[in-house]
Amino acid sequence: MTVLAEEDLRLIHALQVSPRASWTHLGTVLARHPSTLAARFENLRRSGAAWVTAHPRGTPDEMTLTLHSVICDPASRRSVTAALCALPEVYSVEESPSGRDLLLTVIVPHPGDLRERVFPLFDAIPGLLRWQTFHCTALHRGADDWDLGALSPDQIRQLRARPAHPQTPRSLRSFGPIVRILAEDGRASSRTVAARTGLAPTTARRRLHQVLASGRVSLRCDVAQGLLGYPLVCQWFARLPTTLHPRAAALLAQMGAPRLCTSTTGTTNFLFMMWLRSAAEITEIEQQIEEALPSLQLAESVVLTHIPKRVGWALDEQGRAGQLLTKPADYW
Questions:
Q1: What is the pLDDT of residues 199-218, one digit of tens each?
Q2: DSSP tag of 165
Q3: What are 261-306's pLDDT values in tens digits?
Q4: Can you say whether the dihedral through the CA atoms of 94, 99, 101, 106 is positive or negative?
Q5: By the 8 A CB rule, do 255 and 275 touch?
Q6: Alpha-carbon dihedral of residues 288, 282, 134, 79, nearest 10 degrees?
Q7: pLDDT of residue 1
C-alpha cells in the first residue's frame, strides 16, 4: 500500500525529470510555493524516502560496468555482505536467493581496474568463496529512466524545457571531487562545492557546470520502493539474438518501465529488473514478452530478498536510504 502522499509523489517525479531544477521553477510547475516544496523534500530526504544522488556514467568505451555473481560461505554471508558494501567500487549489492548469494554492480574507469583494484579486494574478504563476472556491453535503460508517472505530460514538458548546459567533453577524472559531492547530495550548489573543495566560487561554479554538461555523470532522484506499494524486486536473466536487444528493451519499457535493462556477456546475454506489486505480475510479464519475442529464452527469474546497498547508499527493508556508505573512488 502506498504511504507517500500525492504531493510527495508529484514532487519526486518532478525531481526524477529534473533533479537539479530550482525550487522556484518547481513551484511554478507544481503550483506550490518554493519554500513549501523545499521543506517537503527535506522531510522526504531526512526520512530516507527520497534522495538525489549521482554516479559515473558512460559508454563501454568510457567506463567499465560489470555485474558479479558471488557465492559466500553460509556462515560468513553477513560479514561478506558488509565487506562488499564498504567497497567504493561496488555501487550496489543485492541479496539473491538463487544459484548465487549476492549480485554486485561494479563501476570502474577501465577494464584493467578490475584485475588491479577490484579482484584483489574480493580475494581479501574471508568467506567470499568465488565470483563470476559479466560485462555490461550496452545499457538500454537504467534507474534514472524510471519515474513515478505522477505528473501530466504538460508538467513534464515544462521541466524538460529548461535550457541545458552546453556539452563539454572533458575527462571525468578532472571532476572526481565534485562527483563525490554530488553522490552525497545531487542538488549541491556551487557554493557547497567551493566550500568542500577549496575552489574559488567562480571556479567552483564553472567546474560544476562542466561536470553536469559532460554527460559522464548520472543524476537521479531515488525513492524507497516499499513506500510506493512495490514490495517485490524481480530480475530476469535471458538469452536472445543481440540484434533484438533494442527491440526487447523498448518492449519492456512499454510494459512496465524496467529499473535496469542491459546486454551482458555470459551464458545469458540480456538482463532486466522491475519493481512489482505482486508475484502474479512475474507470470504476466513473462507471458507478454514471450508472446512478443518468441526467440527470447528466459533462463532464470529471481525475486531479491533485500538490497543492502544501492548506488552507494545503505537501504533498509523498505528501501529507505540511511547512511551513505561509499562515494566514487578517489581515482575517478
A1: 999 999 999 999 999 888 99
A2: P
A3: 999 999 999 999 999 999 999 999 999 999 999 999 999 999 999 9
A4: negative
A5: no
A6: 170
A7: 52
- End-to-end CA gap in the chain: 40
| Single-letter amino acid code for the residue at 229 | G
Contact (Cβ atoms closer than 8 angstroms) between residue 120 and residue 113 = no
> How does pLDDT run across 156-193, given as a tens digit for each residue?
999 998 655 555 555 555 678 999 999 999 999 999 99
How many whole angstroms separate alpha carbon 94 and alpha carbon 108?
Answer: 18
In sequence order, what are the residues at sequence separation of 6 or more whose Cβ sits closer than 8 angstroms to the Cβ of residue 238?
248, 268, 269, 270, 271, 272, 296, 297, 298, 299
Widest pairwise Cα distance in the chain:
59
Q: Tell which residue, 138, 160, 178, 114, has the closest CA to residue 58.
A: 138
* Closest by CA position to 101, among listed 308, 327, 267: 308
Cβ-based neighbours of 211, under 8 Å, separated by 6 or more: 172, 175, 178, 179, 182, 217
Question: What is the radius of gyration, based on Cα positions, of the chain?
Answer: 20
Q: Using CA atoms of 9, 280, 305, 310 in order, give the dihedral in degrees to the nearest 10.
A: -40
For residue 86 the three cell numbers come to 564498504
- Candidates 315, 37, 8, 323; CA nearest to 187 is 37
Query: What are the tens digits of pLDDT across the range 28-45?
Result: 999 999 999 999 999 999
With contact defined as beta carbons under 8 Å apart, do 182 and 192 qualify?
A: no
What's the pTM value of the predicted model, to 2 decimals?
A: 0.94
Q: Cell for 184?
A: 552525497
Provide the CB-side half-sphere exposure for 16 (13 A, CA).
21
Helix ranges (H only) for the chain are 6-17, 23-30, 34-47, 77-85, 111-113, 119-123, 153-160, 176-184, 190-197, 201-213, 245-256, 280-292
Q: What does the pLDDT read at residue 167?
A: 57
Backbone angles phi, psi at 170, to 5 degrees: -105, 155
